[in-house]
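User: Predict the structure for this protein chain, please.
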Amino acid sequence: MSNVTGLLTKTKYKTIITVQKGVFLGVEVTGVNLSKPLTEEIIEEIKDAHANYGVIVFPNQFISSEDLQRFGRYFGKLSVHPFSTNTEGNPELIIFDNKEGNPPASTDVWHTDETFRECPPMGTILYSKIIPNYGGDTNFASMSAIYDGLSDRLQNFLSGLEAVHNLGPFQNLFPDTAEGRKNKYLAQEKYQSVTHPVIRVHSVTGRKILFVNPQFTTHIKGMAEDESRSILDMLFKKTPMHEYHYRHKWDENMLIFWDNQAVQHSALHDYYPQQRMMERVTINNDQPPIADAPAPDPATLRKYLMPPIAQFTKSRQKRHHDA
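Assistant: Here is the predicted structure, written as structure tokens:
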């Protein structure tokens, strides 16, 4: 589908009609009615478009919540987000009903969904019910194109590196009370920090992808804090570069299915206090990200002019808390 520069090339399908929307990602799909069960041939072509274009837009889809969930299950098991506004009795369905008195959450930060999990979801599906008169776009960035845009030297340097991801902003949901601190601790124990490759390989296309994001990625494993922070800050600044983007303007009754392996997104909050109501399902993945290369020898990541005191548990002086 793509050449070495990351540019998309057109593919003709038998059952769906596609119109490319962006240079590096994005395609509009018509000729399919998502309120009806889909054939295996249609499903396979949607899977191919999803993997190769990153973002699939289905306009004019008049579907129910049940239709949305059925569509999601064609591509895998639906997951339950532990910190989102799940529907009572139907936790796989998320409803975002943002309006005056209920402002949107902080999803205007560039991110890949739920990278705090050992196996982040393979894709996310969002369906528009009510759209504001202005504002409320969603911006998408191709992280495979961003990888392709890195210099050869930087690509080689990043190859094999691992980064640590944690709960990020979800840790701020807990109030600073005894009960809140207890629940925060329990959440952090349940979802402990995980390690993902800085450069992952797409499970379908084989393309290499820059897989760090400012919402959940904390540091590069094994590297000194200042070096890790400098490298991550530099990589984070790549995502907002406009040439890698597809900015989507919503209409009502529109469904978007994006690839959580290769795409980051940012939901703009410039519509408040207008109402914006969306339904979402997220598709589970039972495989962790595939690294582009073996992890490096830890000795090559950090040097010590003086060895860390933690290496001398028997000979070092004891502190009061060691007693």
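The chain is about 20% helix and 25% strand.
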